[in-house]
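Researcher: Next entry in the queue.
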Amino acid sequence: MDKLKQNKVIFLMFTFTSVINFLVFWLDPESYMYLIISLIFFLNACVFFINSRDPNGPYRKWWIAVRVREKWFFSVLYGGCFAGFIFTITLYGVLKDHLILIIVICVTGGWLWGLIIWLLNEKRYGDSE
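Model: Structure for this entry, 129 residues:
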């Protein structure tokens, strides 16, 4: 099996495991460890998602266009705003309490997620221009 197919399979496994752990947390919101495990598997899935892309495909072209705006713009817009918003809605739907705390945690976590994704994309596509 070539490296790209192997990374796609690992991406699907990490995504599936992340969803299962999140569903367990959803059914039992007192068990926060499943949420933490779900987030760890989600970040691993992101790593393998980036590595499962064709190095010369459309994702690379999108990345070259996005990286012009710099790291902080990407991490705030894609991480803090987009991912933070999605995480906030999801967690508030499960917990239904502590909205301000959830917003702060999710936006901060989304910003860190955006920064990590930026660094991974730079490692993968930054030198290939």
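Model: The two ends are 27 Å apart (CA to CA).
Researcher: Noted, moving on.
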